Amino acid sequence: MKKIYKFLVIMVLSLATMTAKAQNDGISLTLLPNLSYNNFYNPGVPVTSNAYFGIGLSNISLSVYNSNIKYNNLYEFVGDKPVSFDANKFINSLDEHENFINTNFSLDIARFGMRIGKFYASFDWRLRYNGEFHYSRDFLGFFINGNGNYLGDNNPADFSIGVDVNTFTEMALGLQYQVNDKLTIGVRPKLLVGMVNVSVNDDDTKIYTDANTYEMTADVNINIKASSILKMDDVYRMSEYVEYIGGMDGLIFENIFDIKDNLGFGIDFGASYIFNDNFGLSAGVYDLGFIKWKHSKEKHIHKDNVVVNDALIDDFEDLLNMELDFKELYTDLLENVWDNDSMYEGGSYKTSLKTRIMLQGYYEFFPLVRLSAVTQLYYINKQFRPAFTFAYSGSCWRVLNFTASYTLSKYSGNSIGAGVGVNLGPLNIYAVTDNIMIVSKVNASTMEMLTSYNAANVRFGLVFSFGNNKKANKEKSDKSLGDLSDER
């Protein structure tokens, strides 16, 4: 009972460390028993197999996280039925500045690992994408409600936005060392090759509307940077850059392997301690690092009193019909505020990885019943945001593995996760998600996912593993099941 009490105390203390701002990202992968990805975020967690390898389909991950676009805040309801879009309700539900949409994708191109005595060496080659879009409440409120809600010098629209998009390849060399029967440590240095980056940082852009003439002016303070492995000598507009990358014009396959430009480095490290056959703790840091982008296109705008548009209304007929020309407003914003989005040659710059700090504890009654508690600090929008997960996992003779979890998180929503893995000899097939409700939205559009659930993620794949890290696992499993039978 003391052991169980100790575990519950750690779990409650972890929960108490949470603040109101939390972000979660795909923890279920590490909770699935007997899967070689159990040390995905922490190289100090002992790998369950003696060797493994996977090519192409070993780990595919897709995720979308949304902080504040929620279904219940978009509509006016009669009972449980939505009857109309409620613009004011939606805008008022947004945070003044802390709103974001985060998208991620990763694909393991190749991975393998092998135990050598007390060491475990591994290699992973992965393609990764991360995109973040941050926006203020007024950024959407301005277009939805019009500029009439922002009249006068003392009531400007805070037009702040931020964009951070990264696509890169990662080659990681992991080294794990079993110090003794209880302590294991690990480190995983990474070589990063940047493929595409777009960074937009709006420090403080405000749009003013004259209360008498409705003339709009802007105080602009925005910085745009973009870089790519592709040659962009003839690209001088942001719109051209987006089309260029989208069409992958001029892409040469060898560029993916070119490590002379856009080079970066990262590292994962951590440790785990097993107190006894039932109880263990681990702590680790994941994705600490940066990419230096050598060649860039840039734009820096710092100016006041820029005339945006005389008004939203083109002529008297528009006024009578109450037709507001938002298309023209968007055009004028680009033309007048961003100088027609033209860009110029820039120098090198750095972007940081999305660092994660994790603390995890578990108590295993027997292989069929393991309880885990995980506290995460995930770096997003220049802040560390905590999340807490409580999970159950189990294994039936190492053939069928499963997990279920509950995650507490404000920004990605409180969610129920689930996962299953099947071991057919050396072949391991698995699928996990941190929000099982998203299964009902598989065929939905991205916006439908955003408005229905705050978090939508899935990981799946197949990997080959050989041998068993714990030689006594079978004896332990038989003993545990025998003890259970005796109790009955």
Topology, please?
Elements (H helix, E strand, L loop, with lengths): L1 H15 L34 E5 L4 E7 L8 E4 L2 E5 L1 H7 L5 E18 L2 E17 L1 H9 L11 E2 L2 E18 L4 E20 L3 E4 L6 E13 L9 H10 L15 E12 L4 E15 L2 E14 L6 H6 L4 H12 L6 E3 L2 E4 L3 E11 L2 E12 L2 E14 L3 E9 L6 E10 L2 E7 L12 H7 L2 E12 L6 H15 L1
Task: Give a nutshell description of this structure.
By secondary structure, the protein is an alpha+beta fold.
Account of the 3D structure:
With 488 residues, the chain is α+β, with helices and mostly antiparallel strands. The protein has a single domain (2-487), classed as Porin. The protein is built from eight helices and 23 strands. The chain has helices at residues 2-16, 87-93, 137-145, 238-247, 316-321, 326-337, 446-452, 473-487, and strands spanning 51-55, 60-66, 75-78, 81-85, 99-116, 119-135, 157-158, 161-178, 183-202, 206-209, 216-228, 263-274, 279-293, 296-309, 344-346, 349-352, 356-366, 369-380, 383-396, 400-408, 415-424, 427-433, 455-466. The strands form two sheets. It has a 21-stranded antiparallel β-sheet that branches. It has a two-stranded antiparallel ribbon with strand order 3-4. Helix 2 (87-93) runs antiparallel to helix 3. The radius of gyration is 26 Å and the shape is globular. It starts with a helix and ends with a helix. Mean pLDDT is 76; it is low at 1-24, 248-257, 310-324 and 471-488.
